[in-house]
Structure formats: C-alpha cells, structure tokens
Design a protein that fits this description.
The complex is a heterodimer.
Chain A: H1 2-32, E1 46-47, E2 50-56, E3 80-82, E4 86-89, E5 94-101, E6 124-126, E7 129-131, E8 139-146, E9 158-163, E10 173-175, E11 178-180, E12 184-191, E13 196-201, E14 228-233
Parallel strand pairs in A: 1-4, 2-5, 4-14
Antiparallel strand pairs in A: 2-3, 5-12, 6-7, 6-12, 8-9, 8-13, 10-11, 13-14
Chain B: H1 18-47, H2 54-87, H3 111-140, E1 148-155, E2 158-163, E3 168-170, E4 173-176, E5 181-187, E6 192-196, E7 201-205, E8 211-212, E9 222-228, E10 240-246, H4 248-257, H5 262-267
Parallel strand pairs in B: 1-5, 4-10
Antiparallel strand pairs in B: 1-2, 2-3, 5-8, 6-7, 6-9, 9-10
Classes of the chains: A alpha+beta, B alpha+beta.
C-alpha cells in the first residue's frame, strides 16, 4: 500500500517536472522570437518629416559594407531598400519621401499597384515630372504602406510604384564604392494621422524563390530589412 | 445515488443490479440533456459569430442545431464513463496489495444496446448529411441573377478588389446592402484563405486559378473585416482589409468617388 502510494507521489512529481520543463521551453522559444526575419544591424532608423530612401539591386551598400569594401551581409545579391527599413515619422504631419531607385524594372502581377494611391494629390514626381499611373512593366518596386489590423484608428494606405531604370543604362553613379546606373528620383508626400505602427512592403515580385509563375515572392520579399519594414508614427 | 450491490469477492456490481444502474444513468442523462440543450439555445446565440448575411445566418443556425444534437451524445458517453469510474471502481481490501486485485468479469455484448447505439448515431449522421445537402441546395439552386461580381486577389500581404462591372479597384471592400455578391478569389503567389467575419464568407485563394462560391447577400449595415486564414509568410497577420456594408446610395457614391460607373452600381442586380 505504502509502496503504491509512493509510486503515485513519484508519478505526480515527474508529471509536474515535465510540465514545468515544457513550460520553460515554450516561454524561452516565444521570447527568442524578438523580431520577424533578418534586421540589418548597422542601419539607423529614418526619422523625421523628410524621409530619404534608396533601392539597390544588391545589398553591397546597405548590408555589411559602408566603406566600399565588399560586403552585402548574408545575402549580398538580394535587392534592398536603404539605409533602413524602420521608418519613424511624426503624427499629424505631411511627410515628404524621396526615393532613389537604382534598380531595373520587373513587371507587376497585380494592376492595382500601377496607380499612385494615398499620396497628397494621388501623385508622385519622377525626376521632377508628375505621374499618377505607370504601365505594369515599368515599376522596379513599389513602396506600399498599409495598416495592420491592430492600428485601426487611422487608416493609412500609400502605394507608389517606382519606375525602374533602363536595362542598358550605363553604371555611372558610384555609391560607397559600388557602381550603379543613375537612379530615378521619386518624390511624394503623404499625411500621417494619429500615432501608430504600420508596415510597408514592395509588391513587385523582385525577390527569389518559389516557382510555377510565382517566382520572385521569396527571399528579400519575405524578409524584413530588405523589401519590407515598418513605419512608426509617433 | 444509492450504494450498488457488489460481488463480495470482486467488489463489482452483480448482474441483477445492471438494470438498476442503466435506469439510473438514463434518468440522469435525460435530466442533464434537457438542461444542457436548453443552455445551448440560451448561450449559443450569445457567443455565435455576428450574422450579417444570408450565408452567415444559415451557418449559425447549423452550429446551433449541431451543438444541440451533439450534447446528449457527449453527455451519454461522459455519464457512462463517469458513473462507471465512481460506482464500479474496485478497491482492494484493507492491507491487501494492489497487485492481488483481479480483473472484473468480462462485459457481454447486449444486442439491443448495440442496435440502439447504431440506430441513434446512424440517424444523427444521416440527419447531418441531409442538413448539409439541404443547405447546399438552398445556396446553389436558383441563384440570384446578375449578382455583383467582386474579384478578390490575394498577394503577400494584401487583399485587393476589383469590380469588373463597375470599373473600380480598391484595397477596401465596399458592399451594398441586400444585393447578392459573387466573390471570385485568386492568389498571385502562395495559398491564402479569404474570410469575411460576419458575412460567412470563407474561400481558398489558390495561385493560378479563380475560385467562386455561392452568392452571399449582406443583410446588415456595418463595418466588417477580411482576414487571411492560411499562414502565408512574414506579414500574414497583417493581411486584412476593411469591409463596409452600406446603403445602395452610399455604394453608388463610393463607386463614383473611385472612378467607377455609378449608374451600374445603382442598377445591376439590385434586389
């Protein structure tokens, strides 16, 4: 009888111990998920009402190299936004965004993104020229801000298709020791509302991976720090 | 609950007492079933998803009926097991080691019990099939003519909508009240799942193909939301959009504001 009882007690202790171990492992696992995907370590947030970004066809300038030495981080051939994908802008402000687009075109799959949407006047300026819509073959990338479901107070949606540079354009612009074509310079403005956290993303399939007609939606398209990031309105 | 008659050697109730136990379990089951089914009819509407369309209304009714039917079956099993654990538990005499306990007498199959169990569960299964076929029949026969067609495109990680008959594209879904809507859903990259809370819409978004479902008719003005219910990558949890069910006049105005043909918005398929 006493032996049976002690066996029961041992069983209960063992069950509690296993439960505690599983609980600790789950907590440690959840805590380790501090961010989504890869965040480039050496880039600062872009802050202020004037935001300047660049889009490069590779990662040499932005990921792991600031002095012209070969770098590129873990994926040097990945297309990327630069200098940061974490953008902070003030609330209730008209924000001016300037994007230097160094990459060539990749056709859009979704015509919805052909049009400039959500900017002041629904217009962008490409090398100083006002543009409201581009052909589906023209964009190299898009800069598209959207509202996550937990930030419903102010609905922010901005879509700007960024025309790519010509395939045969000479690489006569040097950035941090690397040669690129002269970029298209796109300028647009959008208005922020109440503070909140938004996400932005490129909707041109400019990445790697996948197949069967869905090429280009993987790699940098599915990893923060490259073609996706956050817009924090403070 | 009185003390059952037990065999002195095994502590297990003898055969003559089985009828008494079964009657007791059945009485208990009957009372609990009535109480729990009543609770289902009270509680289910309080926790059911919002019903703002013809499809969602039928889905909620189905949930209510199926739950009410499942309750007595589940109660019967739980009661039988619980009663047996409590009443027929064999205890070792004081001082005797547990290892010396013998297994109880084997259970003998009772044909009437087996027939009754098969009949009840078979009837329930056939009823559920019939109910589903009835619902499908209602939704697919004589569908509304000239519904408002909305093309839904899923792309990591945004839903976009186009109204081909109205010439409108949007990242938000605006629907007119009491007008049948036919959703045609596709994906440009990976699998997505298109769901509208409150309207009872749940469709797969598969790359390279368009999926359609029976029409849905919004029956309540209000704000709703779409979600993606197929884990689709980095910003899967952000893949949502607003849905507004508005009056016909407000819908026509929205179409006009978005560069569409307002006349078509007000006329086609209105019911």
């Amino acid at each position: 009888m006493a032996e049976g009882k002690s066996r029961h007690v041992l069983g209960v202790i063992a069950a509690l111990a296993v439960t505690a171990v599983v609980f600790v492992l789950v907590v440690l696992g959840v805590r380790s998920l501090s961010g989504l995907g890869y965040e480039p370590p050496a880039t600062a947030s872009t802050t202020g009402a004037d935001v300047t970004l660049s889009v490069f066809p590779d990662s040499y300038v932005c990921h792991g190299s600031t002095s012209g030495a070969p770098g590129g981080g873990p994926h040097s051939t990945w297309v990327t936004y630069c200098p940061s994908t974490s953008i902070k802008v003030p609330a209730y402000t008209t924000v001016t965004v300037t994007i230097k687009q160094y990459d060539t075109s990749t056709a859009l799959h979704n015509p919805f993104f052909d049009q400039v949407r959500g900017t002041v006047g629904d217009v962008m300026y490409v090398n100083g020229r006002p543009v409201r819509e581009v052909s589906p073959e023209a964009p190299g990338h898009t800069f598209t801000i959207q509202t996550p479901p937990d930030t419903r107070e102010t609905n922010l949606f901005v879509n700007v298709p960024l025309p790519g540079v010509a395939e045969n354009a000479p690489s006569n612009a040097t950035v941090a020791g690397h040669s690129y074509p002269q970029p298209n310079v796109i300028v647009f403005k959008f208005k922020t509302g109440s503070p909140g956290r938004y996400v932005w993303h490129c909707y041109v399939p400019c990445g790697t991976g996948l197949s069967g007609g869905q090429e280009g939606f993987g790699g940098p398209m599915s990893t923060t720090g490259y073609m996706a990031g956050t817009v924090t309105v403070t | 609950m009185g003390t059952p008659e037990r065999d002195d050697a095994t502590g297990v109730a003898d055969g003559s007492a089985h009828g008494g136990h079964i009657r007791r379990i059945l009485r208990l089951w009957l009372v609990l079933s009535v109480i729990c089914i009543a609770l289902v009819f009270v509680i289910n509407p309080l926790i059911a998803p919002e019903s703002a369309s013809s499809v969602a209304g039928f889905a909620n009714l189905t949930d209510l009926i199926f739950t009410a039917l499942a309750v007595p079956v589940a109660l019967f099993v739980w009661l039988f097991v619980g009663y047996s654990v409590v009443v027929f538990r064999v205890r070792a005499p004081a001082g005797a080691p547990v290892e010396e306990l013998e297994d109880g007498p084997p259970l003998q199959a009772q044909p009437w019990q087996q027939i009754a169990w098969l009949a009840v569960t078979g009837f329930l299964a056939i009823f559920l099939v019939g109910w589903g076929m009835f619902g499908f029949y209602k939704q697919t026969t004589d569908p509304p003519r000239d519904p408002l067609v909305v093309n839904v495109t899923g792309q990591q990680w945004l839903w976009t909508y186009s109204y081909p008959s109205l010439g409108v594209q949007s990242n938000e879904l605006e629907l007119p009240l009491r007008r049948p809507v036919e959703f045609r859903v596709t994906s440009l990259d990976v699998l997505h799942g298109f769901v509208i809370d409150g309207l009872g819409v749940a469709m797969d978004a598969n790359p390279g193909t368009w999926v359609t479902a029976p029409t849905v008719t919004p029956t309540k003005l209000g704000d709703y939301a779409t979600r993606c219910v197929e884990l689709c990558g980095l910003y899967h949890s952000y893949m949502w959009s607003r849905v507004k069910v508005v009056s016909s006049a407000a819908f026509a105005s929205w179409v006009s504001e978005n560069g569409g043909h307002a006349g078509a918005a007000g006329n086609a398929g209105a019911s």
